[in-house]
UniProtKB/TrEMBL annotation:
It holds the Pfam family NOL9_C. Signal peptide: none annotated. InterPro entries: Clp1/Grc3 (IPR045116), NOL9_C (IPR057570). One of its GO terms (biological process) is cleavage in ITS2 between 5.8S rRNA and LSU-rRNA of tricistronic rRNA transcript (SSU-rRNA, 5.8S rRNA, LSU-rRNA). One of its GO terms (cellular component) is nucleus. This is NOL9 C-terminal domain-containing protein. One of its GO terms (molecular function) is polynucleotide 5'-hydroxyl-kinase activity.
Length: 176
């Protein structure tokens, strides 16, 4: 049941007029979807169920589902629970450039406040990963150059998460 709900959740990355009737169609669609580019410096990572060595924090996120959250960083709310705006698949990492590549159906206006990635125990659905003859969504190499919110919306949104645009990247992204 959880796997089915996750599949349905990530189908929201696409408009409703796109037919994604099978897991294979969804896997192809996710692999072709340009991810958001997230700078390491714009987010903090919180591992919810384990301790991860500092040197492995970014690698530990590769090919995982993370919660996209807003921390409460004011003194009055220092012990408040972070507000999770949705889930994302970390499709790849580029340690040399300090970037994560994330797929999510969360709207850009809700991503503006995301400064915290929560890694728990939610796994990418196997039905999407293990599709015969299909490249898994986190395994593709079609990472695109960054476009800022200003380029997309004619005003600077100052978002740590920004959708990418064009396929001329020379990135040595660490993908599984």
């Amino acid at each position: 049941m959880r796997e089915r709900r996750l599949v349905e959740y990530f189908k929201q990355c696409f408009s409703s007029d796109i037919s994604l009737a099978t897991n294979k169609e969804l896997a192809y669609a996710l692999a072709s979807l340009p991810p958001y580019e997230v700078s390491f410096s714009d987010v903090t990572v919180m591992h919810l169920h384990c301790e991860v060595p500092r040197t492995e924090i970014w690698h530990s996120l590769n090919a995982t589902i993370v919660g996209l959250a807003s921390s409460c960083d004011t003194p009055a709310t220092a012990h408040a629970i972070p507000w999770c705006v949705g889930l994302g698949i970390v499709r790849g990492i580029d340690v040399q450039r300090g970037l994560l590549y994330v797929i999510t159906p969360v709207a850009v206006e809700h991503l503006q406040s995301v400064d915290l990635l929560l890694q728990g125990l939610i796994e990418i659905p196997r039905s999407v990963l293990q599709v015969k003859g299909c490249e898994s969504p986190y395994m593709s190499t079609n990472v695109r150059d960054k476009i800022t919110g200003k380029d997309l919306y004619a005003s600077n949104l100052n978002s740590p998460l920004s959708r990418q645009d064009d396929g001329d990247s020379d990135s040595d992204a660490d993908t599984m």
